[in-house]
């Protein structure tokens, strides 16, 4: 139905609440993005540790296990490997915490979206009721106009000489 200049405008009384719910949802999206980025950073750190261990192991196999063995180098390599293992374990633990935080942020975002959708659904219902009221009012006005036209036509017929 096209809007007319004199047509009343729909006003949703809870528009402020809807705006607030949208803002909360956007805030939850940003929080989720930050937590996901932190998790991705930890995954990258673990990948770098793994690559460093692989490169070092390959180097030891190719270059340091041939001919006379340097026990000091092998001991240093072993200490390096233990340190990397500790670092990897620490990173995995931080990743588990970050994953829980991401899951919690996803739940909060889902709740925020559900709350926003509830208000939007209420807005849609109010808008439909408003449109129906407007439609009924227009039909009533059209009926009134039709009745008046019929009355005037009847009045003219009675005044006209037979």
How would you describe this structure to a colleague?
There is one protein chain. With 162 residues, this protein is mainly α. The chain has a domain at 15-123: Orthogonal Bundle (Helix Hairpins). 86% of the residues lie in helices and 0% in strands. The protein is built from 2 helices and no strands. It has helices at 15-64, 71-159. Helix 1 runs antiparallel to helix 2. The longest helix has 89 residues, at 71-159. The protein is rod-shaped and about 135 Å long. The two termini are 45 Å apart.
CA-CA gap between termini: 45 Å
The major pleated sheet works out as:
none
The helicity comes to: over 70%
Shape: rod-shaped
User: Radius of gyration over alpha carbons?
Assistant: 37 Å
Task: Kindly report the average pLDDT value.
Answer: 91
The amount of beta strand, in percent, is under 5%
The helix tally amounts to: 2
Order of helices and strands: HH
User: What's the CATH topology label of one domain?
Assistant: Helix Hairpins
Structural class: mainly alpha
Give the low-pLDDT segments: none
CATH hierarchy: architecture of one domain: Orthogonal Bundle
Summarize the structure.
With 162 residues, the chain is mainly alpha-helical. It is built from 2 helices and no strands. Helices cover 86% and strands 0% of the residues.
Helices and strands, with pairings:
Blueprint (H helix, E strand, L loop, with lengths): L14 H50 L6 H89 L3
Helix pairs in contact: 1-2
Could you name the key traits of this structure?
162 residues; mainly alpha; Helix Hairpins
């Amino acid at each position: 139905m096209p809007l007319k200049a004199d047509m009343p405008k729909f006003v949703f009384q809870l528009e402020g609440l809807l705006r607030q719910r949208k803002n909360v949802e956007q805030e939850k999206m940003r929080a989720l993005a930050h937590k996901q980025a932190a998790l991705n950073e930890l995954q990258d750190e673990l990948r770098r540790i793994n690559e460093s261990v692989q490169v070092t192991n390959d180097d030891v196999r190719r270059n340091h296990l041939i001919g006379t063995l340097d026990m000091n180098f092998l001991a240093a390599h072993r200490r390096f490997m233990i340190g990397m293992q500790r670092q990897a374990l620490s990173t995995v633990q931080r990743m588990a915490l970050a994953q829980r935080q991401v899951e919690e942020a996803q739940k909060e975002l889902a709740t925020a979206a559900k709350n926003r959708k509830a208000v939007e659904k209420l807005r849609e219902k109010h808008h439909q009721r408003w449109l129906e009221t407007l439609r009924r009012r227009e039909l009533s006005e059209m009926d009134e106009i039709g009745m008046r036209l019929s009355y005037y036509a009847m009045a003219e017929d009675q005044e006209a000489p037979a």
